[in-house]
Specification:
Distance between the termini: 34 Å
Strand content: 15-25%
Number of strands: 14
Number of helices: 12
Radius of gyration: 19 Å
Helix content: 40-55%
CATH superfamily of the largest domain: NAD(P)-binding Rossmann-like Domain
Largest sheet: 6 strands, parallel
CATH topology of the largest domain: Rossmann fold
Structural class: alpha/beta
Bound molecules: serine
């Protein structure tokens, strides 16, 4: 990790909250500046270190924050996810792309040294091989979100080649977390199910029973994010984005896992427009490049993820500090 400070953009989001907490514990609270246009629902993010109210679509304000805090590494997580983006395509394109250019240009002009920017399994589409999807393959996304991530990956690689910008990226699968809520994704059902199972004993899933998707527990995702950003530049030869795998399961399989803990749990299926998005994405991911280049290894499978999710959300309900 370089000598300057770290800025997390999108610190109120599903990934941002946990990334800020982990970075602060690893590198020191005062070195990690959390920022977002909204206030994080998790108090620790605001109380535990510096916080800046930042609209990423204001490049002057971004520059102000970067200079004020002597930032050299930026984790740029602000984005509109797949389901929400389908409802506001132009706004999604503007947010996802304009903000990326602002951050890439900061590095191009020597204001920061390193960038982490997330991509997604959404870069793939219906023509992509569905099982064990390779690193290099057909990418014809059918969502606005996927188009923005695919274009973003290419711009990252371009800035790296032409201007020497040190940008690193991961294609996240669906992320499962208990500290912060997901927002507007197609994979959000895999978080909602645990809350609903504990609170109501039933859940109406918006995907079909057999909609298999790649997923990952947040602890693994955060570790991957910090690992890839932290290692020597020479170990990151891919400057578009790395495939990353944790586990793969269907709604029916996760429901069965929940039932091992809550036998009376009932799952019904009411597929909506998100089913079409899910059907266009891979079922499983080949992440051998990430394993070979920077030693990636996931720790959580469906069983372990479900145990932790149920245990942690149960605690939240009991202490009624529920943020959902
Ligand atoms: N979890 C994201 C979504 O569903 C995929 O990157 O939009």
């Amino acid at each position: 990790m370089a000598a300057g400070n770290i800025l997390v953009i999108g610190a109120a989001g599903q990934i941002g909250v946990e990334l800020v907490l982990q970075l602060r514990s690893q590198f020191g609270a005062s070195r990690v500046i959390a920022s977002d246009v909204r206030m994080p629902s998790v108090e620790e993010v605001i109380q535990g270190g510096p916080f800046e109210n930042l609209n990423i679509l204001n490049d002057q304000d971004l520059l102000r924050v970067v200079e004020k805090h002597n930032i050299d590494t930026v984790y740029h997580l602000a984005a509109m996810l797949s389901a929400t983006a389908e409802k506001q395509p132009e706004k999604a394109w503007d947010l996802n792309m304009t903000s990326l250019f602002y951050v890439l240009d900061l590095a191009k002009h020597g204001k920061i040294k390193r960038i982490f920017w997330p991509s997604s399994i959404a870069v793939f589409g219906p023509t992509t091989p569905r099982h064990n999807t390779p690193q290099l393959t057909i990418c014809e996304p059918s969502t606005v979100y996927g188009i923005s991530k695919l274009a973003g990956e290419q711009w990252c690689s371009y800035y790296h080649e032409k201007f020497g910008v040190d940008v690193r990226s991961i294609r996240y699968p669906g992320l499962i977390s208990h500290k912060s809520a997901p927002g507007g994704g197609t994979t959000d059902y895999a978080v909602e199910i645990f809350h609903e199972a504990l609170k109501h004993g039933e859940y109406a899933c918006f995907l079909q029973a057999d909609a298999e998707l790649p997923m990952m527990f947040m602890e693994d995702a955060i570790r991957a994010t910090i690992e890839i950003t932290d290692i020597e530049a020479s170990r990151v030869p891919i400057r578009t984005s790395y495939n990353l795998a944790g586990m793969s399961f269907t709604p029916e399989q996760i429901a069965n896992e929940v039932r091992k803990h809550i036998p009376e749990f009932r799952m019904t299926y009411e597929p909506d427009f998100r089913q079409q998005i899910a059907a266009s994405w891979p079922a499983s991911i080949d992440d051998s490049a990430a394993r070979e280049h920077w030693g990636w290894q996931a720790n959580y499978d469906l069983k372990r993820t479900s145990e932790v999710m149920l245990q942690e959300i149960r605690k939240q309900i009991q202490s009624s500090r529920v943020t959902f």
